[in-house]
Design goal:
By secondary structure, the protein is an alpha+beta fold. It folds into 2 domains: about 70 residues, no CATH class; about 80 residues, SUI1-like domain (Translation Initiation Factor Eif1, 2-Layer Sandwich), CATH 3.30.780.10. The protein has 4 helices and 8 strands; from the N terminus they run ββααββββαββα. β4 and β5 form a beta hairpin. This is Large ribosomal subunit protein mL49.
């Protein structure tokens, strides 16, 4: 019987019987425990901890759907959270339909727009960088330059890495414009 193993080192004392399940409060670092666990797996006897986690995983999608349905984006009168996060205004185009804008700016995993400031030359040169641009980055650069309206504005679009760089501190204006566009 595998549940009545004797081990040289056991939390119950030397030579005391124990049955050690993975994830149980009792811990034993005996090679017999590995053999016992492998035997139980081969006999298709599920481990207690595995069963608990499988049950949690099976119900986790229910909680996620309930949370998503009651999220801030579901309410039309929602404006802004205390942290400054604002939901996208526009709805994404359905698959197969070409949107009006030939580019897309994907939000970060926290829901913020990926617009950053980069300081060069000891802080004397400031760059505004829009990252996570999918599609035509040159079109985003042209539209952004037209919106900012600064003559002689130096900018660069890199479609390979999906970024647009503008010389100067235009982060707040860029974020505001991207929100009005629908990102």
């Amino acid at each position: 019987n595998y549940s009545q193993k004797f081990c040289a080192w056991s939390p119950h004392g030397i030579g005391q019987p124990h049955s050690d399940w993975i994830g149980d409060e009792r811990k034993s670092f005996c090679a017999d425990d590995f053999v016992e666990t492998m035997y139980r797996l081969s006999q298709r006897k599920p481990l207690q901890t595995y069963c608990r986690w499988a049950l949690i995983r099976s119900y986790s999608h229910v909680a996620a759907e309930a949370e998503a349905s009651s999220s801030a984006e579901a309410t039309p009168d929602f404006k802004q959270t205390p942290s400054g996060w604002v939901p996208p205004l526009g709805k994404p185009a359905p698959p197969g339909v070409q949107p009006d804008i030939p580019f897309r700016v994907v939000r970060s995993r926290y829901g913020n727009l990926p617009v950053y400031l980069d300081y060069k030359s000891g802080g004397s040169r400031v760059l505004t960088i829009v990252r996570k641009v999918e599609g035509d980055a040159e079109a985003l650069e042209k539209m952004l330059r037209a919106h900012l309206g600064v003559k002689g504005l130096l900018s660069r679009a890199d479609s390979l890495i999906g970024a647009v760089t503008v010389n100067g501190d235009y982060k707040t204006r860029t974020v505001a414009w991207l929100r009005t566009v629908g990102f």
